[in-house]
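User: Predict the structure for this protein chain, please.
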Amino acid sequence: MFKRILFATSATDACDHAARVAFDIAQRYNVHIDVFHVLGIPTRGFSQIVVDVTTGDEVTLDDNYRDLVKEEIRTYYDHQIEKTENWSIDVAIGLPHREILRIARLMKPDIIVMGGNTGASGSYAHKKIVTGSTFQRVAKAARCPVLVINRPAASFWGGFSNVVFATDFSGASDTAFDVSFKLARKLNCEFHIFHALDITRTQLNNFHTQDFIEDQIRKASQQLRSKYISQMGTFKQYTMEVWEGIPFVEIVKYAREKHADLIVMAHNTRKTDDDDTSIGSVAEQVILRANCPVISINRSVGKQ
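Assistant: Here is the predicted structure, written as structure tokens:
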């Protein structure tokens, strides 16, 4: 399934949970892991003076400084690297999301792994801001799946056994299904197909009746069967459900009920709150709340 992982990290405790998952995948499935860190942003043009993205200090960039940072990253992840056969460490300067996307285009990884909060440790509110910048930009433009771990991956303690695929029936969701089903079949996982019927899109004082909602649930169930189940052949280790409610809330609840250790879904630009411009998509809301890793996929996946 995966032959090369790009792990984008700040090499701080903010990325520790993502590191645990990234290195576990590399060790368990014997794949190459590229550990990638953005040193900082040039103060102007091609200046050698760089603002360190982690500390905020201005430093002079030269080969010695690059080597020093690489050695610090090597030391920080020493206990994980010593168990990993195939690995490399690379650093770059620039805006984090641009450099992550640039190195991904160059290395062509099968998956990008990153923390929802790629900066220094901070409050939950700070994490939401970071998630709305670096991750959001990477997820929207990446040409491969992006695996994000925003909270301690409580239900990921070695390998994948329960995969939840959440769909909104979009074109990007079709791509997400292909990725999630191949992974579930390859790793012999329990596969859970889920759709959250959004009942929040109603006009003021024009609420849907329960009969209408149940009719929509039946139609969505039929769509799940025709669109996805029909492609699964003899694979029988699956469940399929439709719940009504606020999509990101229902996805998180469903994943928790199924003891999921992975959620796969499409990244889209649909806003859950008109006033929330930083973490507007359903996928990002799920990432903030899920207690397991989330793979975000956009339409460009597979178009290397």
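Residues 118-132, 269-279 have pLDDT under 50 and may be disordered.
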